Amino acid sequence: MKTILIKNAHIVNEGTILKGDILIEGDYIKEINDSISAKSANVIVFDAEGKYVLPGVIDDQVHFREPGLTNKATIETESKAAIAGGITSFIEMPNTNPQTTTIEELEKKFEIASKTSSANYSFMFGGTNDNLDEILKVDPKKVAALKLFLGSSTGNMLVDDPKVLETIFSKTNLLIAVHCEDEATIKANFEIYKEKFGDDIPIKYHPEIRSEEACYLSSSKAIALAKKTGARLHVFHLSTGKETDLFSNKIPLKEKKITAEVCIHHLWFTDKDYDTKGTLIKWNPAVKTKNDREQLWEALLDDRIDVIATDHAPHTIEEKKNVYTKAPSGGPLVQHALPAMLEMYHKEKISIEKVVEKMCHNPAILFQIEKRGFIKEGYFADLVVVDLNNPWTVKKENILYKCGWSPFEGTTFKSRITQTFINGSLVYNNSKFSDVKAAKRLTFNR
Fold first, then answer.
1. Residue 337, pLDDT score
2. Backbone angles phi, psi at 57, to 5 degrees
3. DSSP reduced 3-state for 12
4. In angstroms, what CA-CA distances link 133 with 167, 168, 320, 446?
5. Shortest CA distance to 107 belongs to which of 76, 88, 134?
6. Reduced to 3 states, what is the DSSP secondary structure of residue 180?
7. Do residues 60 and 365 make contact, with C-beta atoms less than 8 angstroms apart?
8. At residue 301, does pLDDT exceed 70?
9. pTM of the model
10. What confidence score (pLDDT) does residue 158 get?
11. Are 117 and 75 in contact (CB under 8 A)?
12. d(CA 29, CA 179)
């Protein structure tokens, strides 16, 4: 059994920063204390003097494109980029090809991940208008959640039959995660701009097409249905200030039935960035105004918004540089999400303790993930070592995504992820990857 002793770390956990040591035995954290001595010559001692140790980030929304879209990304390539960015566990979405809407296809994805993933993994099962029987077969202890596209779907994954929706909300025991944008509103808006500009609609109109109204209308309907049926609802990637008023901070997260997420891009960019970034920052839901961004920050910090995620969704650069109607929405983010949030810490926008709460603790609580998301004795040793004063610039040569580009290219971050441990194994060390496959399938305490 491998034994690793991390010495002299600033340990960030549950709202505190403790200067101390962490003893890892096998896959687990054995001891946390002010000072721990190596009791054997076989103990590997790692000195973290001057560095911060965080729980591994849990990203609750990624699109790793496998199977079927592997020209853009694979579980292998994107999970490798994730661990370089301090993300030790991910939950991947069902809109692959084929879609993950049957138990058979779900198990195929688990099989791929078991052989190729560098990070711990789980998948969401996809709902459609006609797969209720399959949904009811899903074991809540083994699968992260049920994903419903209430807008912006691919294939046949738009769930737009009100009777089907109510039945799903009423019958499933799974947490329901939703993408909320009203399709009728978006289509009406799109036709106005298409008639005026043709295919080459200026990207600045993207947030007018995928508007505040489209987001709020869909989110409010989903929340009303959850309240009516008692379903456990998690609303993905809020993009408007108006939507934040739909959520509460009056009870602890573990008691909430309705929760919310915000993504890195909606906390970083605004509609003014379309002038320089163009379709590279075309996402669904759209990046909106500075006022929306500030209201999202306010709701994040006062706990109406519970989780920060990436919605990592890579496309090739050739696809992204198409005209508006042909440029797909989405972008790669897992490698740069934690550095971006630590940059906000340096700008005094958020504390490092709050970053850990929103990116590590809360996803574990919200999805009831077993023994992850915290630095605790008896928990899996998923740990990230961060140097808060080691600047680096995002360049093509250090981008690890298969698609080879990033919306952060040219950005200098003050903080650097120097080491990542997964299940007690050092898998990433100063820009070098270990050959050890330490990743495990996530399990859920439900």
1. 98
2. -70, 140
3. strand
4. 11, 10, 37, 21
5. 134
6. coil
7. no
8. yes
9. 0.97
10. 84
11. yes
12. 36
CA-nearest of 242, 120, 232, 98 to 178 is 232
Mean pLDDT, rounded, for 190-202: 98
* Among the listed residues 407, 120, 183, 138, the one whose alpha carbon sits nearest the alpha carbon of residue 281: 407
Which two three-digit tokens encode residue 423?
């299940």
Q: Nearest-CA neighbor of 155 among 68, 29, 264?
A: 68
Enclosing H/E stretch for 31: strand 28-33
264 vs 248: CA distance, rounded Å = 21
Domain ranges for the chain? 3-53+380-389+409-433, 56-366
- H/E stretch holding 364 reads helix 362-366
* CATH superfamily name and code, 56-366: Metal-dependent hydrolases (3.20.20.140)
What are the strands, taking DSSP E only, across 268-413?
307-309, 383-387, 392-393, 412-413
- Output the pLDDT for position 397: 98
Domain 3-53+380-389+409-433 part of CATH 2.30.40.10: yes
Q: Is the pLDDT of residue 154 over 70?
A: no
Report how far residue 314's alpha carbon sits from residue 401's, in angstroms, rounded to the nearest whole number.
Answer: 8
Tell me the mean pLDDT in the region 418-444: 97
Mean pLDDT of the chain: 97
- Model pLDDT for residues 249-260, shown as the tens digit of each residue: 999 999 999 999
What pLDDT score was predicted for residue 161? 86
Identity of the amino acid at 19: K
User: Which residues face 412 on adjacent strands?
Assistant: 393
Asked if 3-53+380-389+409-433 and 56-366 have one fold, the answer is no
pLDDT value for 282: 98
pLDDT at 150: 86
Q: Residues 230, 133, 104, CA angle at the centre, nearest 5°?
A: 120
Which of 182, 192, 180, 179 lies closest to 214 in space, CA to CA?
182
Sorted by sequence, the CB contacts under 8 Å of residue 152 that are 6+ apart come out as 179, 181, 183, 186, 210, 284, 285, 329
> Which residues lie below 8 Å from residue 47, measured CB to CB, with a gap of 6+?
7, 8
Which residue type sits at 238?
Answer: L
What pLDDT sits at residue 229?
98
Query: How many CB atoms are closer than 10 A to CB 328?
Result: 17
Q: For residue 208, what are the CA distances in angstroms to 203, 267, 285?
A: 10, 19, 11
Task: Determine the pLDDT at residue 153.
Answer: 67
